[in-house]
Amino acid sequence: MKNSNITKKIVAGKFKGKTLKLPSKETTRSSKGIVLESFFNTIQFAIIDATFVEVFSGSGSIGLEALSRGAQKIVFMEKDKEALKVLKENIAQTDPSSCEVVAGDSFVNIASVVATLKREGREAFFYIDPPFSIREGMEDIYEKMIAMIASLPKEAVKMIVLEHMSGLELPKEIAVFSKKKSKKFGNTSLTYYLSEEME
Fold first, then answer.
1. In sequence order, what are the residues at sequence separation of 6 or more whose Cβ sits closer than 8 angstroms to the Cβ of residue 81?
2. Who contacts 132 (Cβ-Cβ below 8 Å, separation ≥6)?
3. CA-based diameter of the chain, in Å?
4. How many whole angstroms separate alpha carbon 84 and alpha carbon 166?
5. What is the CB neighbour count within 10 angstroms for residue 141?
6. Beta bridge partners of 76
7. Rounded distance, CA 27 to CA 177, Å?
8. Per-residue model confidence (pLDDT) at position 24
9. Distance between CA atoms of 52 and 49, rounded to whole angstroms?
10. 102, 179, 183, 186: which is deepest, by most CB within 10 A?
11. Pick from 179, 129, 178, 158: which is nearest to 47 by CA?
């Protein structure tokens, strides 16, 4: 199936209006505009000069929006080959020198991303948008995601944001991180986690 006409635009900031390609819906699922808008309204000033890690990044639309709005460095984590190709094309339209692509299994690669953050003394926003668990082969995705979050050291984390199916019950605490708020947008919800020192 040809999908060259599936696109979305960067909404605000220095790359506003740039058209981003999206991979086919068979491999990834794009975040809704209303979700993106709500998220950036929540973190609008905190994102300036920040490091931003987009886990399961697909086309990179969230990370590139963060870059456009003033984030200093974006780390994209993606496994799907088609999505990686589209992601790299999208990055080329913005500022490739501020972007790093970590290809492969995010659950495996998160350790090296965290090690780099710690070595550089950086805290990052982690935006985690896994494939919904209704997808074949993804039934245990949320258990793996919770284990991933529990493995994150608080000194490398500014905030953790999960985009997930609205019916999912997430724990109030995951290791040192506490659920601060959850916002529902139809079938999709955003849930924010912070460690105690960040409040």
1. none
2. 29, 138, 141, 164, 165
3. 48
4. 27
5. 18
6. 54, 101
7. 30
8. 74
9. 10
10. 102
11. 158
pLDDT at 2: 41
Structure tokens at 24: 């086919």
pLDDT tens, N- to C-terminus, the chain (199 residues): 344 458 899 999 999 999 999 887 655 556 678 899 999 999 989 999 999 999 999 999 999 999 999 999 999 999 999 999 999 999 999 999 999 999 999 999 999 999 999 999 999 999 999 876 555 555 688 899 999 999 999 999 999 999 998 988 899 999 999 999 999 999 899 999 998 654 4
* H or E stretch covering 108: helix 106-120
Instruction: Quote the CA–CA distance of 40 and 51 in Å, as a whole number.
Output: 14
Kindly report the pTM of this predicted structure: 0.92
Residue 182 token pair: 């959850």
Q: Are 135 and 169 in contact (CB under 8 A)?
A: no
Q: CB-hemisphere CA count at 13 Å for 25? A: 5
Rg (CA), the chain: 16
Parallel/antiparallel/unpaired status of strands 19-21 and 177-185: unpaired
Residue at 145: amino acid letter: M
One-letter amino acid at 22 equals L
Give the E-state strand segments of the chain in sequence order: 7-9, 19-21, 51-55, 73-78, 99-103, 124-128, 157-165, 173-174, 177-185, 188-195
